[in-house]
Amino acid sequence: RITQPPPALDLCDVKGQESAKRALEIAAAGRHNIVFYGPPGTGKTMLARALAGILPPLTDDDMLEVTAIHSTAGLLANGEAVYWPPFRAPHHSISHVAIVGGGAFPKAGEVTLAHKGVLFLDEFPEFPRAVLEALRQPLEDGYVVVSRASSSAKFPAKFTLIAAANPCPCGYFGDQVKACICLPTQVSKYQKRLSGPILDRIDIFVDVHAVKTKDLVNLPLGEASKDIRGRVQKARDSQQKRFTSKPIVSNSEMSSKEVKEFCNLEEESKQLLAAAINKFQISARGYGRILKVARTIADLAESEEIKSSHIAEAIQYRVKDN
Hints:
Blueprint: H1 18-30, E1 34-37, H2 44-50, H3 60-72, E2 87-88, H4 96-100, E3 101-102, E4 107-108, H5 110-113, E5 118-121, H6 129-134, H7 136-141, E6 143-147, E7 152-156, E8 160-165, H8 184-191, H9 196-199, E9 204-207, H10 213-218, H11 225-242, H12 256-262, H13 267-280, H14 284-300, H15 308-316
Parallel strand pairs: 1-8, 1-9, 2-5, 5-8
Antiparallel strand pairs: 3-4, 6-7
């Protein structure tokens, strides 16, 4: 096995943004979909690309499956294998066929090439609506079906989605430093490009704010990606053990039945979650996603019980659900 991860930005080089880095660790540990919101220049893209450096290597079974996909797509030289989760980052001008696959003889698209890895969509709202809506099936089912007149093909597409988005066309809506120049109608129209069904499939929402210039100079280096990767691996090992008899491997894949089985809450946590549901008008789907994220946070803390502190942290990543 190849022990060295592929080249990636080390999180220790990212100054500040501790809450965003924490969210990234949680997303990696539980394979949760995550969106970074914020104005240009705040480091959203940098954080997203650093995700590759905190992901553990593929298991032997996943390595064989991913290698087969990439070999069939002509992306590997003879004898090469994929030992680390693939990281795909298509441009927002990508077509519907290129994202899900297709052609006269159906072939894999980006969602399949990201299988068992990460699909990074920068400038998320800029992607064509047809492309965004095409993500619904793979995000929900873990596969995509490409149908043509002569044939139909089913491709695996179980990936973690990480996206970066500006809050408006100019990028500065809600920014405390630079004023937004967009009209309210422009802001509303831009934000509605991301439909409810797509946002409902996101587990973690993070607002990323600019780091002050003096902090960029004075802040010490952060924690290294390899150390974070160690915690991510431990959390994934816990999930693998938990789901030994289940057809899933991560917290993000839990069904409502499995959430009920593995996410029991103490009374204090129940009350905290009930208050959040009322205050933020969180949907039933959002409620389930909070519990899944809280389960991952507990795993990172090496805790079998989901405590109120885990629920509180998970809730803060769901405030855009309203």
